[in-house]
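Please go through this chain and its backbone structure tokens and walk me through the local backbone shapes. Keep your notes short.
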Amino acid sequence: MTGVDSELFRNRLAREGFRPSLFRYHSTRSTLAAITESLAAAIRDAGPRVHVVGHSLGGVVALEAFERHLELPPGRVVLMGAPVRGARAALALARNAFGQQVLGPLALAELAQCRERRWTQPRELGLVAGSRPIGLGRFFARLPRPNDGTVALDETELPGAVDRLVHDASHIGMLFSGRVAAAVAAFLRDGRFPQSES
């Protein structure tokens, strides 16, 4: 995960017994290939069993890293609000020069297009999506409900995932939710989200 906005989330995972580390990347200056190489190296260096949690574009980057590097150490993966099938808001922004500058080349290449994907890796994958429509994405595109204000629920769907949690949270709000953090920790431990949360 990357950014100051994930600090509270990482602290909550630490209280659950995990040792979170921060992966930083420059989405407006780096290529997907360079970022996924760096992430793969960080995962290799982290130990014999490594869990990965990616939010938004970070989840798309994590997905790509695991697709490109099949030899990475075992562990579980959680994608939170990750528009793995493309993002309508990004597609709308990409229609003008200003929007293209805001998005940057990585988001343009990865989010401003529709795609079909399937998770085929042996590691267990869990998906978290938000259903509280508060966010800037709704000002750029007509998002179908449910959505988290930035990403629509259908944009986070990934066949092959073992479990899915839809939580009453906005795109950024899920990073500040104690219930989401506890559910993610449960998935990392057990490979399933708590039934009461789904």
Remarks:
- The longest strand covers residues 125-130.
- Strands lie at 52-55, 77-80, 125-130, 163-167.
- The chain has one domain: 4-197.
